[in-house]
Design a protein that fits this description.
heterodimer; A: 238 residues; alpha+beta; four-stranded mixed β-sheet; 57% helix; B: 229 residues; globular
Chain lengths: 238, 229
C-alpha cells in the first residue's frame, strides 16, 4: 500500500450501524482507508454535503474522487471492485445472491423499523410494540440464518458474507439495547442460531471496528434525555 | 445449468410486477404469467411463496423463489443469458442501485401523498415530488434511456414515471407535472412506453384509469395512514 495516499476514504459517524457495515466490509476485505468522522450533533461537513448531496448522510465511500452512498450499496461496491482482495462477500451463485439480497432488504425494512419504534416510540405502548416486533423479526431471521448458513456458523456459511455484515452493522445497537433493557435481543432460548451467530463479534475483523458499547449506552441515555426534555417542553407549553 | 420453467406471479396494474416482466422479456426468457386479484384476496400460491411480504412480483424459477422486484431484476440479469440489464462497471452499478433505492424509498411516499392528500400538506409533497423528478431527470443526461441507447435497469425501475404517472394524474385530477415541465423525462417516457419489448406488458391505459378511479377511496385511506406515520 502507498504511504498516506488513500484511494479509499470513508465518511462516517462512530455510532452509526450503517457506517459500521461499511467498516466491517472494509475490515473483512483487509482494505485500508482514511476514516473521516462527521460530528453527531454538529453541522454537516462540506465534504459530506458535496459527496452525498441527495441525502447528506453517512456512510459515504469515496473511491478515487467517486462517491458511493447507501451502506448496502457500498458493501456490494467494495466486493465488486476489490474482488481480488480478501474473501468474497456476496455468494457466487445468482440464486444465493438473490436470497442474501432479499434478507438484507428485510433487515433494513423490518428490523430497523422495529428498533426505531422501540427506541423512538412516543408512548410506552409504542415502545413495547416495537420490542414485540423486534422479537418477531428476530424469529424470522432465525429461519433465514438456518436456510443461509446450512449448518455452518454464518449467513455466508463457513465464512462471513454480505448478510453477516448487513446484520453485523446492527450488532452494537443490539448489545446496547441488551444492556439498557436487561434482556437479550437474540435470546438463546427463542433464537438459538442468532444467539450463537453473535460469535461474529469475537472475530478480529469485527473487533477492529466495532464501537465501544459502553459509549453507545451513554449516548443512548443522552439522546433519550434530550427526547424526554423536548417532549416535556412541548407538553408544558400546551 | 439453470432450472427451467419460469413463472411470474404478478397483478394487473402493478408497476413492480411490470418491472419483472420487462426484464424477462428483455432476456427473451419464456414465462407463465399468473395474475393475482389483489383487491379481492391473495392466492395460496402467493402466500406460500412470499409468506413474509405477501406481495407481487414473485419469480418462480424451477424450485427457486425470488421476491422483491429489485432483487428479482438483478437475479434475472445474472441467471439468464441475453442483453445486460445492469451496467458492468461497479461504480455505474452502484449509481443505478442508488437511484433505484431513491425511487422506492424516497419518492413513493411524497408521490402518493401529493395526489391523495389535501391543502397545505399536499403543497409540500408536490414540491418534494418536483425536486425528486428534477434529480431523476438529471440522471438522463440527454440520453435516450437512462441506460444509454437501449433499456436498462434504471429505465425499468422508473417505469411508473413513464406510464402510471399520467394515469394517476387523470384519475385524481391532480396535475403533478405541467406540460412544459421535465421535457427530458417526457421524451424518455414516450421512448419507454413505445418500446417493442415493453409495450406488450404495460397495463392497458384505459383499464388502469378505470382501476384507479374505482379504488380512489381505498388509496385515500392508504395515504391518510401514511400521513399519520
Amino acid at each position: 500500500m502507498t504511504m498516506g495516499d488513500h484511494e479509499l476514504k470513508l465518511l462516517g459517524m462512530w455510532a452509526s450501524p450503517f457506517v459500521l457495515r461499511a467498516r466491517l466490509a472494509l475490515s473483512f476485505k483487509g482494505l485500508s482507508y482514511e476514516y473521516i468522522e462527521e460530528e453527531i450533533f454538529g453541522n454537516k461537513s462540506a465534504l459530506l454535503v458535496k459527496s452525498n448531496p441527495v441525502h447528506k448522510k453517512v456512510p459515504v465511500l469515496i473511491h478515487k474522487d467517486k462517491s458511493i452512498c447507501e451502506s448496502q450499496i457500498i458493501v456490494e461496491y467494495i466486493d465488486e471492485v476489490f474482488s481480488g482482495t480478501g474473501p468474497s462477500l456476496l455468494p457466487a451463485d445468482p440464486y444465493e445472491r438473490g436470497v442474501a439480497r432479499f434478507w438484507a432488504a428485510y433487515i433494513d425494512d423490518k428490523l430497523f423499523s422495529s428498533f426505531m419504534m422501540m427506541i423512538k416510540g412516543k408512548t410506552s405502548e409504542e415502545k413495547a410494540e416495537g420490542r414485540r416486533q423486534s422479537f418477531a423479526v428476530a424469529k424470522t431471521l432465525e429461519g433465514a440464518l438456518k436456510r443461509c448458513s446450512k449448518g455452518k456458523s454464518f449467513f455466508g456459511g463457513d465464512n462471513v458474507g454480505f448478510l453477516d455484515i448487513v446484520l453485523g452493522g446492527f450488532v452494537a445497537w443490539v448489545h446496547t439495547r441488551d444492556i439498557l433493557s436487561g434482556s437479550k435481543q437474540f435470546d438463546a432460548g427463542k433464537t438459538p442460531l442468532l444467539a450463537a451467530w453473535e460469535r461474529f463479534c469475537a472475530l478480529d475483523a469485527t473487533k477492529a471496528v466495532k464501537p465501544d458499547v459502553e459509549k453507545l449506552v451513554e449516548l443512548s441515555k443522552m439522546r433519550q434525555a434530550r427526547d424526554d426534555a423536548a417532549a416535556a417542553a412541548v407538553s408544558q407549553s400546551n | 445449468m439453470s432450472p427451467s420453467g419460469v413463472k411470474l406471479i404478478g397483478a394487473f396494474g402493478s408497476p413492480f410486477a411490470h418491472r419483472a416482466e420487462v426484464a424477462l422479456r428483455l432476456k427473451g426468457v419464456p414465462y407463465e404469467l399468473l395474475l393475482e386479484e389483489l383487491m379481492i384476496s391473495k392466492s395460496d400460491l402467493l402466500l406460500k411463496h412470499n409468506p413474509i411480504h405477501k406481495k407481487v412480483p414473485v419469480l418462480l424459477h424451477g424450485d427457486r423463489t425470488i421476491c422483491e422486484s429489485l432483487v428479482v431484476l438483478e437475479y434475472i440479469d445474472e441467471a439468464f443469458d441475453g442483453p445486460a440489464i445492469m451496467p458492468t462497471d461497479p461504480y455505474e452499478r452502484a449509481m443505478v442501485r442508488f437511484w433505484a433505492h431513491f425511487m422506492d424509498n424516497k419518492c413513493a411516499k411524497p408521490f402518493m401523498l401529493s395526489v391523495w392528500s389535501e391543502g397545505e400538506a399536499q403543497k409540500g409533497f408536490l414540491k418534494e415530488v418536483k425536486e425528486n423528478l428534477a434529480l431523476l431527470q438529471a440522471q438522463l443526461e440527454g440520453k435516450r434511456f437512462f441506460a444509454g441507447e437501449s433499456i436498462g435497469y434504471l429505465d425499468i425501475v422508473l417505469c411508473s414515471l413513464a406510464h402510471w404517472l399520467t394515469v394517476i394524474e387523470e384519475a385524481t385530477g391532480v396535475k403533478l407535472v405541467a406540460d412544459d415541465e421535465f421535457p427530458d423525462l417526457r421524451r424518455w417516457a414516450k421512448e419507454y412506453t413505445s418500446n417493442e419489448i415493453v409495450k406488450p406488458c404495460l397495463p392497458d391505459r384505459d383499464r388502469l384509469l378505470a382501476f384507479y378511479t374505482a379504488h380512489l377511496d381505498r388509496y385515500k385511506m392508504i395515504a391518510k395512514a401514511m400521513l399519520q406515520q
